[in-house]
TrEMBL record:
<feature type="transmembrane region" description="Helical">
    <location>
        <begin position="398"/>
        <end position="415"/>
    </location>
</feature>
<feature type="transmembrane region" description="Helical">
    <location>
        <begin position="79"/>
        <end position="101"/>
    </location>
</feature>
<feature type="transmembrane region" description="Helical">
    <location>
        <begin position="166"/>
        <end position="184"/>
    </location>
</feature>
<feature type="transmembrane region" description="Helical">
    <location>
        <begin position="375"/>
        <end position="393"/>
    </location>
</feature>
<feature type="region of interest" description="Disordered">
    <location>
        <begin position="35"/>
        <end position="64"/>
    </location>
</feature>
<feature type="transmembrane region" description="Helical">
    <location>
        <begin position="140"/>
        <end position="160"/>
    </location>
</feature>
<feature type="transmembrane region" description="Helical">
    <location>
        <begin position="107"/>
        <end position="128"/>
    </location>
</feature>
<dbReference type="InterPro" id="IPR019286">
    <property type="entry name" value="DUF2339_TM"/>
</dbReference>
<protein>
    <submittedName>
        <fullName>DUF2339 domain-containing protein</fullName>
    </submittedName>
</protein>
<feature type="transmembrane region" description="Helical">
    <location>
        <begin position="497"/>
        <end position="517"/>
    </location>
</feature>
<feature type="transmembrane region" description="Helical">
    <location>
        <begin position="554"/>
        <end position="575"/>
    </location>
</feature>
<feature type="transmembrane region" description="Helical">
    <location>
        <begin position="213"/>
        <end position="231"/>
    </location>
</feature>
<feature type="transmembrane region" description="Helical">
    <location>
        <begin position="435"/>
        <end position="455"/>
    </location>
</feature>
<keyword id="KW-0472">Membrane</keyword>
<feature type="transmembrane region" description="Helical">
    <location>
        <begin position="319"/>
        <end position="338"/>
    </location>
</feature>
<keyword id="KW-0812">Transmembrane</keyword>
<dbReference type="Pfam" id="PF10101">
    <property type="entry name" value="DUF2339"/>
</dbReference>
Length: 595
């Protein structure tokens, strides 16, 4: 007995798949018709003797409508229709992919067969929707399967067989996706839009067989095609169904490029990130109710580009991509904040998220551009610049970004530029890098909380003990590190090390006295001066007494004692002034004097 021809086998498989889809659709329509025609049986009220009517209360409780359960969507017709669509879509994928492996038919026959099947499914869905309006589920399932199959057929014709050049294939795929989404907009059917986008995005990697630039391009096309419909209808589910596959494809593509380098992979990832940011901004502007969805898309969209640059590009090119992403985000933030035409267009929380992502992008560019040993210095410089910008623009969000940079820069400096060992041992000089990092830590520790108090965005900021305590510790450590680094730059001898510790102690004592003198009017500064005085005395008695040599120890104790005595006399004289001559301690005293 002769074996059937391979082409006949393919025709049999395709016929069986089409028959299964038709049977499932027919069975779903029959079940839905029976459910609609089934009479509603109402229990007969029991006979009761006539009684006088009771007065109706003025405020009768309203009967709450029963909540719609999730199981209500799992009707047999819905399940069968969507399962039939999924089976048919997988059949199209098998036709396009497995036929290549088995060499069943020529490429032209495969593409033509898939296109013909997709067109028949779309036509069947349109016909069912027009002739039987009650069979909405069946029509949506047929149309969804048809448009997804047509899109996958275009992907196969471009990626597998090369019938279309890449620009033409992307254009045709965009037209197919727009057609399906326009139909969903006309039918007011979000499941149709989600099915077209999600079905195409899930099955496309099975055809391209890799997260290359072409796959990213087709998935991004789905997001672009879905953007107008999701903005017009306000469909949050469609926004997620279109945005998440694009981010995942770009993210996988960043690692795929390590094994399979491609010069157009990084531009594709960057284009996906830029389009994702723009679509998130448009969604937030036109649909304020979908603000959370827009923020989620904004946070996720540039993440693959942060990985792709350092992994796949040289340092200069990766830095340029990071700077470009930071400038794009900063431009959106500035437009939403300061242009009158867009001042009320973007929600404030979305703009805050844009600013935060701009800070992250700038930090990523800084880390990419610099060596590990210079990360702390770069971050501290950016923290200082952001502090100045926040003070000039009077924006608390900018100061929050500066605080993040300052915290990360400080802890990185502890491991590289100004380690703790440099203050304990004379043979660990930090050089110019330690001097610069120490000065930056001290300056930022003073500038950041001062700017926060001056702009007055947070009322509790002047009384925040953790803030001022952290700033004081950073100031002490920064001045100590800078002083020690400067002394060891002059000479790397033990004498320079001891001189550095003498100067550190004297600097701390002077800072404490300055705070005390200033604290005559400000209570918190007075408390800070007392605490710093105690810290300075603790260092003098616990560290300097055990570490310094005889002559250095004498100098440290004599200078510290004389400074404290002089300050004590001056502070007592300042307190003994008449109330009219002494500076007012608080606002109440100032107003009472003016009165």
């Amino acid at each position: 007995m002769s074996q059937p021809h391979q082409g006949d086998t393919l025709q049999l498989v395709a016929g069986e798949l089409a028959a299964i889809g038709q049977r499932l659709s027919y069975l779903g329509s029959v079940l839905q018709t029976e459910a609609a025609n089934r009479p509603q049986e109402a229990p007969a009220p029991p006979a009761a003797p006539a009684q006088p009517a009771e007065p109706v209360p003025a405020h009768s409780p309203q009967v709450a409508e029963p909540r719609r359960r999730f199981r209500a969507d799992l009707e047999p017709s819905r399940v069968l229709a969507w399962v039939g669509g999924g089976v048919t879509l997988l059949g199209v994928v098998f036709l396009l992919v497995l036929a290549v492996q088995q060499d069943w038919l020529g490429p032209a026959a495969r593409v033509a067969g898939g296109a013909l099947l997709a067109a028949l499914l779309i036509a069947a869905g349109w016909w069912v929707h027009r002739k039987a309006a009650e069979q909405r589920v069946a029509s949506i399932a047929l149309a969804t399967t048809g448009f997804a199959a047509m899109f996958l057929d275009v992907v196969a014709a471009t990626a597998l067989y090369g019938y279309f050049p890449v620009p033409a294939g992307l254009g045709i795929g965009l037209v197919v996706a727009i057609g399906g989404l326009l139909l969903s907009d006309r039918w007011q059917a979000q499941p149709l839009a989600i099915g077209v986008v999600l079905g195409s995005a899930i099955c496309a990697p099975m055809i391209t067989q890799g997260a290359d630039a072409l796959l990213i391009g087709f998935v991004v096309l789905l997001q672009v095609a879905a953007a107008p419909v999701q903005v017009r209808q306000g469909w949050g589910g469609l926004a997620l169904a279109a945005g998440v596959p694009s981010v995942l494809a770009a993210l996988v593509g960043a690692f795929w490029g390590l094994a399979y380098p491609n010069p157009v992979l990084v531009p594709a990832i960057l284009a996906a990130a830029v389009l994702g940011i723009v679509i998130a901004a448009v969604t937030a502007g036109f649909r304020p109710a979908a603000e959370r969805t827009a923020i989620g898309l904004l946070v996720a969209a540039p993440t693959p580009s942060f990985l792709a640059g350092p992994l796949l590009l040289e340092r200069a090119e990766a830095t340029a991509t990071g700077v470009g992403m930071a400038l794009l985000l900063a431009a959106i933030w500035a437009v939403g904040r300061y242009l009158p035409a867009f001042a009320d267009w973007l929600p404030s929380r979305f703009l805050a998220a844009v600013g935060a992502m701009a800070v992250v992008a700038a930090g990523q560019a800084t880390i990419t551009a610099l060596d590990v040993s210079s990360w702390a210095t770069g971050l501290l410089c950016e923290a200082l610049l952001l502090t100045v910008a926040g003070h000039l623009l009077r924006r608390g969000g900018i100061l929050l970004g500066a605080a993040c940079y300052a915290v990360f820069g400080f802890f990185l400096a502890l491991g590289n530029e100004v380690p703790v060992d440099a203050l304990l041992w004379s043979d660990d000089g930090t050089g110019v890098a330690g001097l610069v990092a120490g000065l930056l830590i001290a300056v930022v520790a003073v500038a950041l909380p001062t700017a926060g108090v001056r702009i007055g965005k947070i009322a509790s900021l002047p009384k925040s003990l953790p803030l001022w305590a952290s700033a004081a510790l950073a100031l002490l450590y920064g001045t100590a590190s800078a002083t020690m680094a400067a002394c060891l730059l002059v000479s790397e001898s033990r004498g320079a090390f001891l001189t550095g510790h003498i100067l550190i102690t004297l600097c701390w004592v002077i800072f404490a006295i300055a705070l005390l003198l200033r604290g005559v009017r400000v209570r918190h500064l007075r408390i800070g001066g007392l605490v710093l005085t105690a810290v300075s005395l603790a260092k003098l008695l616990l560290f300097d007494l055990a570490t310094l040599d005889g002559f250095a120890r004498v100098i440290a104790f004599l200078c510290a004692g004389l400074i404290l005595l002089t300050a004590g006399v001056g502070y007592a004289r300042l307190l003994s002034r008449p109330s009219a001559e002494r500076p007012p301690r608080n606002a109440c005293e100032r107003r009472s004097r003016e009165a």
